[in-house]
From TrEMBL:
<comment type="subunit">
    <text>Homotetramer.</text>
</comment>
<dbReference type="GO" id="GO:0050270">
    <property type="term" value="F:S-adenosylhomocysteine deaminase activity"/>
</dbReference>
<dbReference type="Pfam" id="PF01979">
    <property type="entry name" value="Amidohydro_1"/>
</dbReference>
<dbReference type="InterPro" id="IPR032466">
    <property type="entry name" value="Metal_Hydrolase"/>
</dbReference>
<feature type="binding site">
    <location>
        <position position="87"/>
    </location>
    <ligand>
        <name>substrate</name>
    </ligand>
</feature>
<keyword id="KW-0479">Metal-binding</keyword>
<feature type="domain" description="Amidohydrolase-related">
    <location>
        <begin position="49"/>
        <end position="396"/>
    </location>
</feature>
<keyword id="KW-0378">Hydrolase</keyword>
<feature type="binding site">
    <location>
        <position position="60"/>
    </location>
    <ligand>
        <name>Zn(2+)</name>
    </ligand>
</feature>
<feature type="binding site">
    <location>
        <position position="294"/>
    </location>
    <ligand>
        <name>Zn(2+)</name>
    </ligand>
</feature>
<dbReference type="GO" id="GO:0004000">
    <property type="term" value="F:adenosine deaminase activity"/>
</dbReference>
<dbReference type="GO" id="GO:0090614">
    <property type="term" value="F:5'-methylthioadenosine deaminase activity"/>
</dbReference>
<dbReference type="InterPro" id="IPR011059">
    <property type="entry name" value="Metal-dep_hydrolase_composite"/>
</dbReference>
<dbReference type="InterPro" id="IPR023512">
    <property type="entry name" value="Deaminase_MtaD/DadD"/>
</dbReference>
<dbReference type="InterPro" id="IPR050287">
    <property type="entry name" value="MTA/SAH_deaminase"/>
</dbReference>
<feature type="binding site">
    <location>
        <position position="294"/>
    </location>
    <ligand>
        <name>substrate</name>
    </ligand>
</feature>
<dbReference type="GO" id="GO:0046872">
    <property type="term" value="F:metal ion binding"/>
</dbReference>
């Protein structure tokens, strides 16, 4: 079935143009003047922007179950005293429920692809398959320098690779997810890197989020985190490092020379008072920096439109320079840079790209008067402006109605799962 989106104002990081878009199967096949009879299904995009779906490059999707249960805490206290004790009680049903809820929240706020690191990832994959989104998923490995734990974590990662890589018509790919340099042994990191490179898989890891982490790694290895990861041969263009807040000049060079992809998580970094990543500086060095929300317990939503705005504002105030991180820069982070980071053929509206598209209703008071599309997207829009979402050429939401799953049912399942989980703590 082909879909014709007509009367569109097409906006991507390359610019704005009017026209129609023809989708066949999973791809954009034509853009411009297109006869109505070429489309089996017609979507009238008058008064709508059509943008590339937003790409969230750092999430822990099932943590929607933990939304709001441990606010106003520093990262390590938050993890050690609240989150990790709760995560001991997780199971595949809870992770499935939390992932379904997260998928709906992402569809409704214009995200079409994401990069998830968590647990029971085959259950998370089942939720993604059902909701129609695109994702790179990884089992979060934490071995705390324990040999038995290391073996178990690697075994689980390989199980998820075998079971889920390429699932859902190729919308799901699997990466390796060593949690961080402070929770993973050097042996686990080296084994992970070897396995990922041999199987052409990406690696997703938290690096240099807090000053405490820097101190821990310096004490343990006599180097800063990115220096240490470089020293053990872990870094490469397949590595996606989330946070990257506390960096030395030398480490920015290391990131650049190894073509490491950075996922910037401004809201999480601010909420946990971790710090401010030198994003403008990394972009000036042509490092690929994309955007992520982190989990819904350290944000606490998954709205990438909001994340874009806050990313732009944070750099401006950090450098006391309003020209830093323009609307266009941050729109690129959330679209084309995200696509590069996850290795997906999306992020731009061009013939041959995946049909991962979002319609934004500009006939709303918060986008009136309608002047500059990219400025409106970054500084004014929020999830409520999103009306229709298409991923892989399939309509997941049309005119604010989610097509793939019953939203009310999912909210109930997730609410109950969260109640049950919290009652076990
Ligand atoms: C996959 C693992 O990562 C943890 N996790 C969630 N948010 C963060 C963060 N900001 N920094 C480090 N770890 C985090 C999850 O709680 C889980 O234990
Ligand atoms: Zn995280």
């Amino acid at each position: 079935m082909s879909i014709l989106i007509k009367n569109a104002k097409i906006v991507d990081v390359k610019g704005t143009r009017k026209g129609s878009i023809l989708i066949e199967d999973d791809k954009i096949v034509k853009i411009g003047d297109i006869r109505e009879d070429e489309g089996d299904k017609i979507i009238d995009a008058s008064d709508k922007l059509v943008i590339p779906g937003l790409i969230n490059t750092h999430t822990h999707l099932s943590m929607t179950l933990f939304r709001g249960i441990a606010d106003d805490l520093q990262l390590h206290k938050w993890l050690e005293n609240y989150i990790w004790p709760l995560e001991k009680h997780l199971n595949e049903d809870y992770c499935y429920a939390g992932a379904l809820l997260g998928c709906i929240e992402m569809i409704k706020s214009g995200t079409t692809a994401f990069n998830d690191m968590y647990f029971y990832m085959d259950s998370v994959a089942k939720a993604i398959e059902k909701c129609g989104l695109r994702a790179v998923i990884s089992h979060g490995m934490i071995d705390l320098n324990n040999e038995d734990k290391m073996k178990k974590e690697i075994k689980e990662s390989k199980r998820i690779v075998k079971k889920c890589h390429g699932m859902a018509d190729g919308r799901i790919s699997v990466a390796l997810g060593p949690h961080s340099p402070y929770t993973c042994s050097e042996k686990l990191l080296k084994k992970t890197s070897k396995y990922a490179n041999k199987n052409n898989l990406k690696i997703h890891i938290h690096v240099s989020e807090t000053r405490e982490e820097i101190k821990t790694i310096k004490e343990r290895y006599g180097m800063r985190p990115f220096e240490y990861l470089d020293d053990i041969g872990f870094l490469g263009e397949n590595v996606i490092a989330a946070h990257a807040v506390w960096l030395s000049e030398e480490e920015i060079k290391i990131i650049k020379n190894n073509n490491v992809k950075i996922s910037h998580n401004p809201v999480s970094n601010m909420k946990l008072a971790s710090g401010i990543s030198p994003v403008s500086k990394m972009l000036d060095e042509n490092i690929t920096v994309s955007l992520g929300t982190d989990g819904a317990a350290s944000n606490n939503n998954l709205d990438m439109l909001e994340e874009m705005k806050i990313a732009a504002l944070l750099q401006k105030v950090h450098y006391l320079d309003p020209t830093k991180l323009s609307a266009k820069d941050v729109f690129a982070m959330a679209t084309i840079n995200g696509a590069k980071t996850l290795g997906i053929n999306a992020g731009l509206i061009e013939v041959g790209k995946k049909a991962d598209l979002v319609l934004i209703n500009v006939k709303r008071c918060n986008l009136t008067p309608f002047r500059n599309p990219i400025s409106h997207l970054v500084y004014s829009a929020n999830g409520y402006n999103v009306t229709t979402v298409i991923v892989d050429g399939k309509i997941l939401m049309e005119d604010n109605v989610v097509q793939v799953i019953n939203e009310k049912e999912v909210m109930e399942i997730a609410e109950n799962a969260s109640d049950e989980l919290l009652s076990k703590s």
